Amino acid sequence: MRIGVIGAGRMGGILARHLAKRGHHVSIANSRGPDSVTALAAEISATPVSVVDAAKAGEIVIIAIPTKAVADLPRALFANVPSNVVVIDIGNYHPELRDGRIDAIDRGMLDSQWVAQQIGRPVIKAFNNILAKSLLEKGVPRGTKGRIALSVVGDSLDAKAAVLRLVDDLGFDPVDGGDLDDSWRQQPGTPAYCQDLEAAALRRALAEADRSRIAEYRRKGATRRATGGAATTSTTRFVAGRSEDAHL
Ligand SMILES: NC(=O)c1ccc[n+]([C@@H]2O[C@H](COP(=O)([O-])OP(=O)(O)OC[C@H]3O[C@@H](n4cnc5c(N)ncnc54)[C@H](OP(=O)(O)O)[C@@H]3O)[C@@H](O)[C@H]2O)c1
To answer: How many angstroms separate the CA atoms of 3 and 58, rounded?
Structure first.
């Protein structure tokens, strides 16, 4: 498939790398223009492009940037992108760690609903609840014992099916997590967030989440990371062959 990736950091770089390795035609962009992503693109056999061209480059477009940066994307980025192009939001709102306050989310809008509103089109939420290191290292062929499962949510059945196939292609068991309105079940700090669960356990974790605790989950996740608790996981940043530790 043709796949555009907006964001060339930890997650965007790893997704682009794995997708290109599986034979997809990947175009990748960051905030600083194609020249700044040329080395990474060459290394992983992708095409360096601008953000505008990445949005136009795929049957699937993956948004892999900090949530706060979604508001900085070019206006009407997707205005002329055909409606059957699938847009994936992999983002997580981390107010304390990175994003500052986004009032609409603090008032109850779900992370990906806010992203969809900002970009003016529906999104599928996926890949937000796996750490970069696991995404990089833990994909395995279908049927492998202990294969990690990833949940995918969204309102279009066709778009969701395409992303479920992509999850499988990348080495993870795909789990349909419901509509975008269910996406809170895999937001930061929930039982289904970045736990590397197998499919049955992931379904249970999604089911046991409690909507009244969204803010508490988010705080809990941030506190664990800040204090080096169980949820703190060192991830590895891969940029043009270099690697450096970084936190989610
Ligand atoms: N890291 C993880 O383990 C992990 C796991 C699951 C989900 N996520 C989510 O994935 C998203 C990306 O995280 P990350 O860890 O990959 O971040 P990262 O390593 O900091 O990379 C962020 C990328 O976004 C790009 N970017 C920022 N603003 C942009 C803009 N306005 N237009 C185009 N590109 C822009 C940056 O480009 P420049 O360098 O040019 O600014 C950079 O390539 C976040 O929402 C995060 O919550 C992360």
So the answer is: 4
Q: Is the pLDDT of residue 247 over 50?
A: no
Phi, psi of 220 (to 5 degrees): -60, -45
Q: What is the DSSP letter of 247?
A: E
CA 247 and chain centroid, separation = 15
For residue 124, pLDDT over 60 is answered with yes
CA distance 228 to 234: 10
Ligand 1 pocket by C-beta < 6 Å: which residues? 6-12, 30-32, 51, 64-67, 69, 72-73, 90-92, 128, 131-132, 235, 248
CA of 23 to the centre of ligand 1 (A): 23
Ligand 1 centre distance from Cα of residue 145 (Å): 31
**Which residue has the least CA distance to atom 32 on ligand 1?**
31
Cβ neighbours around 91 below 10 Å, total = 25
